[in-house]
Amino acid sequence: MTARIPAGAPPRAARITILDILRALALLGIVIVHAHDHFNLYLPMPPAEGWQAAANSAADWAYEHLFVSKSFLLFSFLFGLSFFIQLDRQEQKGVDFRKRFMWRLALLFLLGLAHTLFYDGDILTIFGVLGFALVALYKRGTPLLVILCLLCLMQPVAFMDTLSRAGLADLWPHSSGWFHPASPAAGPSREFLYAHGSWGEAALWNLTQGQAGKWQFFLLSGRIWQTLGLFILGMLAGRWQVFVDAPNKRRLFLRMLGISGTLFLALLAARLLLTSRLDSALGTDAGHLLHQWENLAYTAAFVSAAVLLFTHPGLPLPSRLLSSAGKCTLTCYVSQTLVFTFLFFGWGLGLAQGMGPWACLCAAVAVFLLQAWACRLWLTRFLYGPLEWLWRTATMCRMQPFRKRMPQEGRPFFLPASVKARFPRKKGE
User: Fold this and answer.
1) Torsion region of 94: left, alpha or beta (phi above 0 gives left; psi -120 to 50 gives alpha)
2) Which residue, of 14, 137, 257, 301, has the fewest CB within 10 Å?
3) Distance between CA atoms of residues 66 and 90, nearest Å
């Protein structure tokens, strides 16, 4: 039983289960990527032999071709979609939720700073800042949003870098020329602090140089535009109700799978062909641009395939397990960092160099499955995950319901009429 809805209030909108499943799949991909990179602890790995070498090669292939720079795209798309759903449902109740959502974004930024104490690759601060663009664009017309989305997803930084390398945009400063890494003499490196420093030293580095480096990477790589474009694309998907009643839209998702899959293969072939025929510098820039477009097409194909699989009535897939994790995405994302930084970093167990790609892949999957199981148990008694509830309460500036209402002992037990007829009460009872 859930919390009782006051009389006269509009009915609570049904949750779209497939979106929770997609969030869980994005979360799985993100933890696999982060674990493979030892949460940005880039230390040389000891050589492996025999089956371990083959397993590491397989894990490296999965990391490179299935997860890296792809799970983040899905996460960004779902953030924009969730933004629209929240504001649209409040608008249907006659509430303008934009100011409240800006406060919600500020809280997300602060939570991201707390998360940064453990991991300098935190994305919550990025989402907290870029989310303000969604608030500004929420009431804009669809044609404008489509144009902005396409411009952002075009990867303008990488596109102009390629033109500059080809001599077609001489006034454009190539992004590699903008990057000036800090001198090693400025202090100990991140890797040294992560591997040998205390938690306090690593946390201070994360909040200062780590934050600056992260924003620099997002700007110079063009990922900031890509993220914004996916935010807008998610908002458009919400406007068009793409995922509403998804089980009855199989033809739509089959068409999306065919188009995005074909585009992915075409971009892959173009990248392999061009990089082999162009000079090394120009080929590198062109390959980088095409690879980012590949990732977009791959993500679209992945979403389409996931919807088709998890809405198919006859397939025994762990939908309930995944949807439970998808309802507690924030809690799972932060707790993954706590687990793995303690596992890898010097202030914890310091096991990074003893865990190659294969071991990290297994650990990531194991932690995710454990989280999903714990979320399923948790949601039998609670309405939200711990951090989700805290974020919701702080957003509304008042305590929100947390525990589900369970049947109370001693309450009257009412039987259906058909059962009463079969077991009539005796006289005097």
Assistant:
1) left
2) 14
3) 37
pLDDT digits (tens, 9 = 90+) for 61-95: 999 999 998 999 999 999 999 999 999 999 999 99
Distances (CA, A) of 45 to 20, 42, 56, 395, 422: 36, 9, 11, 44, 72
Tell me the CA distances in angstroms from 48 to 53, 57, 362, 382, one per residue in order.
5, 10, 16, 45
Encoded tokens for 60: 């490296």
- The Cα 413–Cα 380 span in angstroms is 22
- Only one residue has tokens 């993220």, namely 227
Distant-in-sequence, close-in-space partners of 275: CB < 8 Å, separation ≥ 6: 283, 284, 286, 287
Q: What is the 3-state secondary structure (H, E, C) of 273-318?
A: HHHHHCCHHHHHHHHHHHHHHHHHHHHHHHHHHHHHHHCCCCCCCC
pLDDT in tens, 199-254: 999 999 999 988 988 998 898 888 999 999 999 999 999 999 999 999 999 999 99
Tokens of 366: 């194991």
Which token pair is 61? 């292939």
246 with 312: CB under 8 angstroms? no
The residues near 416 (Cβ < 8 Å, ≥ 6 apart) are none
Question: What is the C-alpha separation between 36 and 25, in angstroms, rounded?
Answer: 17
Backbone phi, psi, residue 188, to 5°: -65, 150
Please tell me the distance from the alpha carbon of residue 174 to that of residue 120, in angstroms, as a whole number: 26
**Residue boundaries of the structural domains of the chain:** 17-179+199-404
Indicate the SS3 state at residue 382. strand
Sequence-separated (6 or more) residues with CB below 8 Å from residue 299:
70, 73, 74, 77
- State phi, psi for 403 to the nearest 5 degrees: -85, 145
